[in-house]
Design goal:
Elements (H helix, E strand, L loop, with lengths): L5 H19 L5 H17 L14 E4 L5 H11 L5 H5 L29 H20 L11 E6 H5 L1 H13 L4 E7 L2 E2 L2 E2 L8 H8 L2 E7 L3 H13 L5 E6 L22 H10 L11 H7 L2 H21 L1 H11 L7 H15 L5 H15 L3 E5 L3 H4 L18 E3 L4 H14 L3 E7 L3 H14 L4 E5 L17 H6 L5 E3 L4 H13 L4 E4 L12 H7 L4 E5 L8 E5 L3 H14 L4 E5 L3 H5 L3 H7 L7 E4 L8 H4 L4 E3 L10 H7 L4 H25 L1
Parallel strand pairs: 1-2, 2-3, 3-7, 6-7, 8-9, 8-10, 10-11, 11-13, 12-13, 15-16, 15-17, 17-18
Antiparallel strand pairs: 4-5, 14-16
């Protein structure tokens, strides 16, 4: 059989995609059919990768932002020699398969990130390109280009309609990411039909205005034209590049090509047969002959590339042993040898200083300590640096001219910032964190969700965590945000009450291999006194801060977080003066507390004490799992007000007097209920 041509190889992608979607009777065949020629050129002529080792450090990153076309990616991985069999392709969109409906990080070897929510893969790619530029500036040396690769990203019309694409591409232009190449599938079709009815942007001019290198009007079905465009993009080192490829969705389908009918549904047996005839593809479904496999297989070339790089790295290790060791430490997410000692030291310092400051300021104290200790920390803020306190002493900005810097001014781009941080975390070797106001986590929520799905080590720093921010009013005062973030699987949330809890929260976030939200106050919070044994218990998420009980159990338990811990402590003192003895439990991280064993739960929140009050300046529903139906929750189920913080707290009923009154009500109602039960018995 003759050597397959470019078109033959592209058709192998097309038919694997068509057949898998048809077998599943679910999926998106149109994009793989339309982008197959582009993918063939990129993966055969340009992509630096090793199918035998998908984690090779110096591989090019390939991101399928228009993730609904997942079968394109799976076909490429299978054909080039990754651990993805033809049987895996036959299980497309089936339960627990390696070929889910959209690319899922860690499910499929060779998939770099979870995509599907349009535009976020593009943002991840920009994060990876930032990471490449930063890491290269730190670790490369003359004659040792240890980190030297590209980030390629496929996008469609949908990705570029999403607002996040504007946020991140604008920033990418400013940062001059010369190793980022985006290939735009300009097919004029989305789910609802021809996009000219709702998307008439001049995309080339849009990207030129961002400062990108733009290659216009490339025939997306002409392999030689695509190759020339990629070569041109790679020659431009001071700008990100976008290649605008005109394609036909569903290319090769004689009756449905160019229509929305190919976007999100199987073609149907009749049309699949028509495509086979039209493209002269004689094979049965899922059949790829050995000549085609040999033409596609990238294992030998990939292993040779990695071996060549390994030789370079061996010489690098001999010449720069400390740099090599640090690079490997960071890429494997290992902590420095002195980490535990230094983290313990900061907590002890915070405890000794007894400072009453805003927890956002306490967070900055932590950064002053941890950022020099952990060079992998790369921070930023969505135009709120001074308010978020996300900067630290002697930090250097990351800019196009200064890529070794470790702080990014993201501008007013909360969603873009969060998705870019996901990309940096996926790249590895970087621990990204970024700040904004807690209420603006709404803008970023889907990126937070993807961080949680992928279990990426990203730290979301959310300040101005309650109505305590005061005068900015209801639009800036979070109410439902704390509870809603707690509901997200795999996401850890900390709302510390003072400097010590803030230090513990930062330590937990740094050590955790999944995302964390730190929710920090604008206003100063009083330092809470603790015994030595209590310090160790903070890391368990909830602990007994004060216990004024006489005998075995207190009359009631007050559970509080953040700024409301001070309310609980003041109320406890007033109640004690009336010979009502309560326990105060500080619970900075509910998810961490819930992960503890039953014995610890019983120790902190004994079942025998059902008179419980939870206190938090936010939505109340979440707390009933801790206080039960007989307990009460003092929170806020309305929006705030614009006034000085103390007045807003008073207006919303967040006062010591109300805690005292509510605690008495719970104690008396529980006692009355017990008395009634005893009489009935």
């Amino acid at each position: 059989m003759p050597e397959p041509t470019r078109r033959d190889r592209a058709d192998a992608i097309r038919f694997l995609s068509i057949d898998a979607v048809q077998k599943a009777n679910s999926g998106h065949p149109g994009m793989p059919m339309g982008m197959a020629d582009i993918a063939e050129v990129l993966w055969n002529d340009h992509l630096q990768h090793n199918p035998a080792n998908p984690a090779w450090l110096n591989r090019d990153r390939f991101i399928l932002s228009n993730g609904h076309g997942a079968m394109l990616h799976y076909a490429l991985l299978h054909l080039t020699g990754y651990d993805l069999t033809i049987e895996d392709l036959k299980q497309f969109r089936q339960l627990h398969s390696k070929t889910p409906g959209h690319p899922e990080y860690s499910d499929t070897p060779g998939v770099e990130t979870t995509t599907g929510p349009l535009g976020q893969g593009l943002a991840n790619a920009i994060g990876m390109a930032i990471a490449e530029k930063h890491m290269a500036s730190i670790f490369n040396r003359p004659e040792f280009p240890i980190i030297d690769h590209y980030t390629y990203c496929f996008v469609g019309d949908g990705c570029l309609m999403e607002g996040i694409s504007h946020e991140v591409c604008s920033l990418a232009g400013t940062l001059a990411l010369g190793k980022l190449i985006v290939l735009y599938d300009d097919n004029d079709i989305s789910i609802d039909g021809e996009v000219r009815g709702w998307f008439r942007d001049n995309t080339p001019e849009r990207f030129e205005s961002y400062g990108w290198h733009v290659i216009r009007d490339v025939d997306g079905h002409d392999g030689d034209a695509i190759h020339r465009a990629l070569a041109e993009a790679k020659s431009v080192t001071d700008k990100a590049s976008i290649i605008c490829c005109k394609t036909t969705i569903g290319w090769g389908s004689p009756n449905l090509a160019g229509t929305a009918a190919t976007h999100g549904a199987a073609l149907g047996e009749k049309e699949v047969a028509a495509v086979r005839t039209h493209l002269n593809w004689p094979h049965e479904p899922f059949h790829i002959d050995q000549t085609m496999y040999a033409s596609w297989n990238a294992r030998q070339q990939g292993e040779a590339r990695e071996q060549q790089w390994n030789g370079l790295f061996t010489h690098y290790q001999q010449r720069y042993p400390e740099l090599a060791q640090e690079l490997l430490r960071r890429m494997h997410s290992r902590m420095p040898d002195n980490w535990q000692e230094q983290a313990d030291d900061l907590i002890m310092q915070m405890n000794a200083k007894q400072q009453s400051v805003a927890t956002r300021k306490a967070s900055q104290f932590c950064l002053d300590k941890f950022a020099p200790l952990l060079p992998e920390m790369l921070g930023g803020s969505a135009d709120l640096t001074e308010s978020n306190c996300t900067n630290w002493q002697d930090m250097k900005l990351f800019t196009s001219e200064q890529p070794e810097g470790r702080y990014i001014h993201y501008g007013v781009r909360e969603f873009g910032m969060s998705a870019i941080m996901n990309g940096m975390a996926l790249y590895q070797g970087i621990l990204p964190f970024g700040g904004t106001f807690l209420t603006f986590s709404d803008y970023a929520r889907n990126a937070i969700r993807l961080a949680a799905i992928m279990r990426q080590r990203v730290v979301f720093v959310y300040t101005h965590d309650s109505i305590g921010l005061g005068e900015d009013g209801p639009t800036h005062q979070p109410i439902e945000h704390i509870s809603s973030l707690r509901l997200m699987p795999n996401l850890s949330s900390w709302r510390p009450c003072d400097t010590v809890e803030t230090a513990v929260a930062w330590r937990a976030a740094i050590e955790r291999q999944s995302p964390t939200c730190l929710m920090l106050s604008r206003q100063a919070l009083p330092f809470q006194q603790r015994q030595a044994e209590q310090l160790a218990l903070i890391a368990r998420g909830g602990y007994i801060l004060a216990d004024h009980a006489e005998g075995e159990h207190p009359d009631a338990i007050l559970i509080a977080t953040g700024s409301e811990v001070a309310l609980a402590m003041d109320a406890a003192r007033q109640l004690q003066a009336e010979e009502i003895f309560v326990r105060v439990v500080s619970m900075p991280s509910t998810d961490t507390f819930l992960a503890q064993d039953a014995a610890y739960h019983q120790q902190v929140l004994p079942h025998e004490v059902v008179a419980r009050v939870a206190i938090e300046a936010g939505a109340t529903d979440y707390w009933y799992r801790f206080v039960g139906l007989q307990g009460k929750v003092m929170g806020i189920d309305r929006f705030g007000a614009s006034a000085p913080a103390k007045e807003v707290f008073r207006d919303c009923g967040m006062t010591v007097e109300r805690v005292v009154s509510m605690t008495k009500e719970v104690i008396y109602s529980v006692a009355a209920l017990h008395h009634k039960r005893e009489k009935c018995a």
